[in-house]
Design brief:
Number of strands: 14
Largest sheet: 6 strands, mixed
Radius of gyration: 22 Å
Oligomer: single chain
Number of helices: 14
Helix content: 25-40%
Bound molecules: pyridoxal-5'-phosphate
Strand order of the largest sheet: 4-9-8-7-6-5
Strand content: 5-15%
């Protein structure tokens, strides 16, 4: 029987069905420990989720406390204190009038809900024909059918195209490989203006919303647009009466060095979507945050919403998320994300100088990405070479977890994300970078492209 990755372990369906990954038994700070006592530096917070690190006692204590009182009270029969308080706290932190929260259990449910809320907003204003939700060609909004329909993620869509309702059509702000073959700032944000072209093609009267990740995550390994990009997007949305949904499932709750990534860009969305870092891996919880203006016609109109899940706003998850937020605030982890993010980014740039496979370093705060290339002219590797998976494996063998993010180039293209918990300390960044250096060296050796000599 397998314990640490030699084969099957029972009947859980793993990503590679017959190859069970190691059996994790403990989490301690930025480390995970498997059943054989091997420690892994969590250089990507799992799936960019474990924002406060593993095994934080205050959170475990809050879970125990809430469990002994109330774990479930159905939301149409009762409200509960933890969910009420969490909504108040997030609403107070969010910019503008974003203060109305609906809780769900995953990021995918939350992005779908945001689309539904946008559509209901227009229905309540007597505009039922506004139903299209536009999204970008390099994007990921979730794995359920509605969320995947909005996602520009070729690999994750590929088997299920027949079930998907829509396609993602707005070019991504991918300056390294501009889809319009332009260069910033000479491009004058032509990729943002493409949103206008897509709205025109459908007719603004038929478009409900545009959804985008402020920094592209799983589909693009921290593709970060120019700072003025979202102001243009906001202007286009306003001019066309199209709602702007910021999908901050990955970027929210401090990950980029601001509580919400939209703050870096000086815009307020109509709907803000949170997940991952909200529960930080301690509980399944996600949320949509809506503005007063978004909610006003719903409140004045039907006054009712027909969405939600059995466990939406359950008190145990809400209490857990509150404890996570307490840790985030008490330990100034948003500031730490900015400071340690700058250290990590500088170190990754130094790695890129020595490792020819690293074609780009990008991102914000502790959400950083490396794009892997075959040549100095940024030629991508053929997908058959599985370069992303090989780098992830080399890192894993050295006890480092990094996140694969291949496929931004129509299914091709290799990239990884480096995004440790926001609790990471300076010495731990050094350890992470040392292991990554070794993994890159092993990859380049395998590819027959040795790293430059150390200075
Ligand atoms: C930006 C973004 N939106 C939505 C999702 C989907 O979240 P979940 O996996 O919790 O359903 C993800 C997950 O990676 C994400 O990164």
């Amino acid at each position: 029987m397998s314990t640490a990755g030699q084969g099957r372990s029972g009947h859980v369906i793993h990503p590679a069905v017959d190859h069970a990954p190691p059996l994790a038994v403990r989490g301690e700070g930025i480390y995970l420990v498997d059943v054989e006592g091997r420690r892994y530096l969590d250089g990507c917070s799992g799936a960019i989720t474990a924002n406060i690190g593993h095994g934080v006692e205050e959170v475990l204590e809050a879970i125990r406390r809430q469990s002994s009182r109330l774990t479930f009270a159905f939301r149409s029969q009762f409200s509960n204190e933890p969910a009420d308080t969490l909504a108040e706290r997030i609403g107070a932190l969010a910019p503008g009038s974003l203060r109305w929260l609906f809780f769900v259990n995953s990021g995918s449910e939350a992005t779908e809900l945001a689309a539904k809320m946008a559509v209901q907003h227009w229905q309540e204003r007597g505009r039922p024909e506004k139903t299209h939700v536009l999204s970008r060609t390099v994007s990921y909004h979730g794995i359920t059918l509605g969320a995947l329909s909005m996602s520009g993620h070729v690999l994750r869509r590929s088997r299920f195209e027949a079930l998907l309702a829509k396609d993602a059509t707005v070019p991504a702000p991918y300056c390294l490989r501009c889809p319009l073959s332009l260069t910033y700032p000479g491009c004058a944000l032509a990729c943002a203006d493409e949103l206008q072209a897509r709205i025109d093609a459908l007719g603004a009267e038929n478009v409900a919303a545009f959804i985008a990740e402020p920094v592209v995550g799983a589909a693009g390994a921290a593709i970060t647009p120019p700072r003025d990009y979202y102001r243009r997007i906001r202007e286009i949305c306003d001019a066309n009466e199209v709602l702007f949904i910021a999908d901050e499932v990955m970027t929210g709750m401090g990950r980029t060095g601001a509580m919400f990534a939209v703050e870096h860009f000086g815009v307020v969305p109509d709907l803000l979507v949170l997940g991952k870092g909200l529960g930080a891996g301690y509980t399944p919880i996600a949320a949509v945050v809506a503005t007063d203006e978004l909610m006003a016609p719903i409140r004045a109109g039907s006054g009712a919403v027909l969405y939600g899940h059995t466990l939406s706003a359950n008190p145990l998850s809400a209490a857990t998320a509150l404890a996570v937020l307490d840790v985030l605030e008490r330990r100034n982890l948003v500031d730490n994300a900015r400071e340690r993010g700058a250290q990590l980014e500088a170190a990754l740039r130094r790695l890129a100088e020595r490792h020819p496979v690293v074609g780009d370093v990008r991102g914000m705060g502790l959400l950083l990405g490396l794009e892997l290339v075959a040549d100095t002219d940024l030629t991508p590797f053929p997908p058959s070479e599985n370069v992303t998976a090989r780098l992830v494996r080399h890192a894993f063998e050295r006890g480092l977890l990094i996140y694969p993010a291949s496929g931004a180039l129509d299914g091709a293209g290799d990239a990884v994300m480096v995004a440790p918990p926001l609790t990471v300390e300076a010495a731990e960044i050094d350890a992470l970078v040392g292991m990554l250096d070794g993994a890159l060296e092993a990859l380049e050796h395998e590819l027959g492209r040795p790293a430059a000599q150390r200075a």
